[in-house]
Amino acid sequence: MEQELLTEQPNTQPQELSPNILEVSGLKQYFPMKVNFLGKPLAYVHAVDGVSFNLERGKTIGIVGESGCGKTTLGKTILKLYKKYDGKVIFDGKDTDELTRADMPKFRCDMQLIFQDPYSSLPPRMTVGSIISEAVKVHNIVPKEQVREYVHGVMDRCGLQQHYFDRYPHEFSGGQRQRICIARALAVKPKLVICDEPVSALDVSIQAQIINLLKKLQKEEGMSYMFISHDLSVVKYISDTIAVMYLGNIVEYGTTDRICGNPLHPYTQALFSAVPNPDPHAKSDRIALEGDLPSPANPPKGCKFHTRCKYCSEKCTLVTPEFREIAPGHSVACHLYADE
């Protein structure tokens, strides 16, 4: 009697993609500030202190907050430019802690960074063509004989004329340099681009051009953006969701319409009150924050914002507020909304 050998058929069904390109959970980034004679850290700077959020594919999340709140450190930690202290980062369905050395080239292509300063982020001794094509050649994006034609196509999409290929960065204005930075990032076909205040060093008219370019490229390429900025007007225009950071924590998170239409956290309200009003006859209700920004090396107990909050109570000084959803798509960490 013949025995039939049953062989397991391989699963040929395509794996379903997660709706989120990026999932960050409890991310912490502490930098040693003081060590003992054995090299063991005695004190840390709490640059990022337990940040969690999700970013949908093809969408933009805006990270806002004043200088020193940990926005840039958050972006560089997600990029693995800093080794994280704790937490989890899931990119494109895969835990970044599980990436091997062989996986890193693809990870670097899939996640790119646009730097804040277009003047210092471009090598002065390389031509525009060399700057954009360098990563294309390293990662074998296209065959060698097609590199120049491919780079010309990238330049065209970013609003750069083809005869700029052999020019040097010092020959361009700030807006044109930022376009070169964008072209360099897009040349490797990324899935996520982290924009670290890409328009803060530019004039207002040039800012509008760069923001419109980013939105146009996102629509064409289907990329996701993590847009870091302290300018709420810019973030409101480009973002689908907004996360407000204060001293290493996200204090409010939600859709752009909800955050801008009804800011709940006292810190968020103060940020929006500082946005200039184009109407010279409109009355300004500026909220002035009293007190100094606490040190991230020695953050206050309880709510970190209580030292500058006019609604501060005894509970705020002792108990850290829980992050709770107040309305669909709108969450806040504040004791004022503890009973809602």
Mean pLDDT metric = 88
Number of contiguous helices: 10
Biggest sheet, strands in spatial order?
Answer: 6-7-8-3-9-10-12-11
Give the low-confidence spans: 1-10
Q: What would you report as the Rg, rounded to the nearest angstrom? A: 23 Å
- Let me know the largest β-sheet: 8 strands, mixed
Proportion in β-strands: 15-25%
Tally of strands: 12
Distance between the termini: 72 Å
* Overall geometry: globular
Secondary structure category = alpha/beta
Helix-strand string: EEEHEEHEHHHEHEHEEHHHEE
Helix content: 25-40%
Q: Can you offer a commentary on this structure?
A:
It is a single chain. By secondary structure, the protein is of the alpha/beta class. 28% of the residues lie in helices and 24% in strands. It is built from ten helices and twelve strands. The strands form two sheets. An eight-stranded mixed beta sheet has the order 6-7-8-3-9-10-12-11, sandwiched between helices. The protein has a four-stranded antiparallel beta sheet with strand order 2-1-4-5. The protein is globular and about 70 Å long.
